Amino acid sequence: MKELNDVILRTVAKVAVVIILTFSINLFISGHHRPGGGFIGGLAFVAAIVLLFLVYDIEKVQKNIPIDFKVLAAIGVLISVFTGVGGMIKGKPFLSQVFGHVNLPVFGQTEMATAVLFDVGVALAVIGTSLTIIMSIGDDR
Amino acid sequence: MNNLVILPIIIPIITGMVMVLFRNNIWLHRFLSLLATVLIGIVSIMLIEQIKTAGMQTLYLGGWQAPFGIALVADMFAVLLVLVAALVTFCCLCYAFSSIGRERGRHYFYPLCLFLIAGVNGSFLTGDIFNLFVCFEVMLVASYVLISLGGTKVQLRESFKYILINMLSSFLFLIAIAYLYAMMGTLNLAHLSVRVAEAGQGGVITAVALLFLMVFSLKAGLFLFFWLPGSYSAPPTAIAAIFGSLLTKVGVYAIIRLFSLVFYHEPGVTHLFIGVLAAVSMVLGAMGAVAYWDVKRIITYNVVVGVGFILAGFASFSVVGVRGSVYYLLHDMIVKALLFLLGGSIIHLTGTGRLKEMSGLIRLHPQLGWMFFVAALSVSGIPPLSGFIGKIFVTAGTFQTGYFWLGGIGLLTSLLVLYSVMRIFMNVFWGYTNLTEETEKGTTKGLLPSMAFLTVLTLALGLGAEGIHTYVDLAVEGLLNPHIYTGTVLGGNGQ
Asked: Would the pLDDT of A141 be above 80?
């Protein structure tokens, strides 16, 4: 693989990874009212990382993103479950959500919902799980 | 609305995930896994008291009312099973501490057990057939890993079969759900019950009901048990005990729930069919138990007999028969876990599973021998142990409905079960002691307390049957009067 001249792949990947990551965040944020959300946003994020795996190699990417993805998935699940538990403390059913409008300095009037926190958890869980799967299959040792 | 209902599902998930964060701290794993089962036990006892005084408890996730949102329903039957499952898991985890080994512990054994329990509890508590499917999958995915954890040759061979057969049954499960949704337009169990009652259970609905029966029979090992003896004898003892005591029972629970709540209008077809399957699996299971000379095989075939017997009582569909089924189900979960643990300890000590190669174990291990004796009597239903009360009600129920053949087969196979476990007892514990303390392959150090606790439980369930009969009767009342369930869950919605 290393002997091949993959300069085109490398050049394209450098741009494409940034675009895919931006798009994944866009998918994630739009998910609250329009199609998208934590699951699909997480998968798009994983697609960017997989592209990095293809262009460079797993060791190099792991050195630059020093995260144990299994732990990331666990943290994601915990975030999601605890947003559900949050409602229980106030006597609401599990998984109740609230939202309100907050005046932020740059964005102006913005809708903030606890469901987004749940979605963050979903996104982390998806990223962690799929990267763990891909890395354990891709690792041929 | 009662948030306690969700706790048996999220407690194991939260503790399991915390364990994943601290992967190498085995002591933390052990502590948290025990803590989780104890908490589930406490929550289920609280729920049992609430249900006793205030009736069935429900929870609509996120406040979305049934039938539109996801409903969790805790009726007495479900919560009793959650409690017993927590007790059994507690004992199996204690047993695992000194038997599962460091390597499996480091590879997420304890978190996986808890995810399995989350799936099992979810299946018991869900009020929605699609979530039943989801919880089944949670449980199965955890069990796929548990059965292959360690990666010995026999485990990999059996897990391959196990995964294939469960994929097939999940696939059929999904198809059956799709058929049901296409016809009824809802997946909420209470809503389904109302709609099936309104539309009448015609031929097509009965056909779908039989498809569901086939799916759950595959999971429960009712007649379609060809995969079970191999798969359940492959993993280490503690895992096999959890499997043998809980996994098949979830399938049994699903059959009882669906055929008492939704498809209960044609007992002459569906319930008779369940009865026939139960009879066949009792006969075949007993034949298997008598035929083999291998401890693990004999015990796994006894699982099949137990499943057949529980559903024989349910097939009679009378108050007495269903009461017997509930008693026997609770008893069977405890005593099967006990038998698996005892059998595993014997194999651990002697280093072989073959009956003909061992003898005289009682001289060095009297406690083990007597516990096995109690378990053997209990599994075959000798009074005053816990199997007796279930057996008598199941038999009376089948006789009441006129299924004399079913009750008769149940009694006959009980004798064969007694013979099969007594044969283990006589071969392993009686006779000339051919092992000394030095030549034993393992020790029972740390293994005895969990088995002793289960033995006490089976004794207590037998002697205290009078004490729990109010709870069991409430469970039976809930099962045989589906309008209580639908009325509580739907409250005025969904008419």
From this structure: no
- Point out which residues pair with B60 in neighbouring strands: B71
Q: Phi/psi of residue A109, each to 5°? A: -65, 115
Interatomic CA distance for residues B88 and B484, integer angstroms: 30
Does A70 sit within 8 Å of B10, measured CB to CB? no
CA distance B253 to B249: 6
Q: Which residues pair with A99 in a beta bridge?
A: A113
Q: What is the pTM of this model?
A: 0.93
What mean pLDDT do residues A100-127 have? 84
**Banded model confidence at residue B432, pLDDT cuts 50, 70, 90:** confident
Task: With beta carbons less than 8 A apart as the criterion, state whether B62 and A97 touch.
Answer: yes
* Number of Cβ within a 10 Å radius of residue B187: 18
Predicted local distance difference test score (pLDDT) of residue B247: 92
Residue B495 has pLDDT above 50, yes or no: no
Q: Residue B396 corresponds to which amino acid?
A: A
Complex ipTM over 0.90: no
Query: Rounded to whole angstroms, what are the CA distances from B457 to B38, B308, B346, B385?
Result: 16, 23, 21, 10
For B22, the closest chain A residue by CA position comes to A71
Helices and strands of chain B, counted as H and E runs: 21, 2
H/E segment holding residue B288: helix B270-291
**Residue A84: closest CA among chain B residues belongs to which residue?**
B62
- Residue carrying the six token digits 């998806």: A126
DSSP state of A56: S
A98 touches chain B (CB under 8 A): no
Contact at CB, A93 and B21, closer than 8 angstroms: no
C-alpha–C-alpha distance, residues B369 and B358, integer Å: 13
* Amino acid identity, position B377: L
Phi-psi region of B318 (alpha: psi -120 to 50; beta: other; left: phi over 0): beta
- In one-letter notation, the amino acid at residue B487 is G
Report whether A79 contacts A120 (CB < 8 A). yes
Grouping H, G, I as helix, E, B as strand and the rest as coil, residue B58 is strand
The C-alpha of B61 sits at a distance from chain A's nearest C-alpha, in angstroms, of 5
